[in-house]
């Protein structure tokens, strides 16, 4: 198997670490990305994203010529699609945008030959693997000779290089032979268990995992709002409640961000709006929590101005969607800082992982006390250390 060439399409947070892990496992990998800057930086041996151990892995893989990046699809024996699956902005119910996935499939169609394996790793609505098969068929690909699998990625940013190898994987296929070939491929570099099923179940499995998280976080966020109103310390409450042997309440926060949990539940809601009341409601609660935090900060700032006679400078500590990553996608912290800025408040964004921002005044290093109001939005380790 290791003598097979792998082509990875999309070299972002998932595709680049996957390429480096495969190269280190002994595969020869062609990484494809439409972004020329991404391709050039990888070919210099540099990772364009922040992730522990990724830089060294990319450097070694490129130096040993096991990984080379290109801007156009290259022939391989195994194709892994890791492109974005965002949603179309529609306030009442955002719908999945499969343009990147379908374009990636169209791009490899002319390169396919008998025996090739195509794997979709992008988080996708149920039926997407079948859609790719339909696109390829339309382009004249003989599907009876090609294997197609869906294998969702469930890594935790910050631990991607470890979890890519150690996590259990779910491999789904349209036919039994797809499942077998997909499983054999993952077995060559994954230490976790390889669990197999249909493509549709594997697609739904990833969406359900993230919706489960969203619903549980929404519960904690709702509690935090209620407790604020009735004067109960939500942290103490959760700690006490979690002493019940069958209760495990998560931590509330300023909302839910990132490319996964804040997006994927909508893929289920779109597929059956009538029967997804809890999943939709959780999304709405988590979106509302961000607005609630904005209102609270504004109330503090307005009270400060009334008392002191001048408008406070507000430091928003943390802008990324979660601690210790550089990812700003769907970040509630960023939304809070941007909304306050747009509404005329004096904001300084502080984030050790964000060097600059188009709109916000941002600093990576902050001297405590430099602002009148400090709001801890993201628990970056550096902030927590400074507080001790
Ligand atoms: N980031 C995560 O933690 C995470 C975790 C699990 C699953 N996922 C899923 O994995 C998929 C990829 O996410 P990501 O975070 O790596 O996205 P990303 O935006 O970091 O990277 C995607 C890359 O694909 C490139 N691209 C887009 N269209 C292309 C095409 N036609 N050909 C070649 N390159 C193309 C983009 O330029 C970009 O560099 C998404 O479906 C996401 O939901 C992400």
Notes on the structure:
This protein is α/β, with parallel strands linked by helices and 388 residues long. The protein folds into two domains: 5-203, NAD(P)-binding Rossmann-like Domain (Rossmann fold); 253-387, NAD(P)-binding Rossmann-like Domain (Rossmann fold, 3-Layer(aba) Sandwich). It has helices at 15-25, 36-43, 54-63, 99-108, 128-138, 160-166, 176-187, 199-230, 234-241, 264-271, 277-308, 332-342, 381-387, and strands at 5-9, 28-32, 67-70, 78-81, 87-88, 95-96, 117-120, 147-150, 169-173, 194-198, 313-317, 346-350, 362-363, 373-376. The chain has an eight-stranded mixed sheet, with helices on both faces. It has a four-stranded parallel sheet with strand order 13-12-11-14, covered by helices on one side. Helix 7 (176-187) links the parallel strand 9 (169-173) and strand 10. Helix 1 packs across helix 3 (54-63), helix 4 crosses helix 5 (128-138) and helix 10 (264-271) crosses helix 11. Residues 9-15, 32-35, 38, 82-85, 100, 103-104, 107, 122-123, 153, 155, 157, 259-260 line the site of nicotinamide-adenine-dinucleotide.
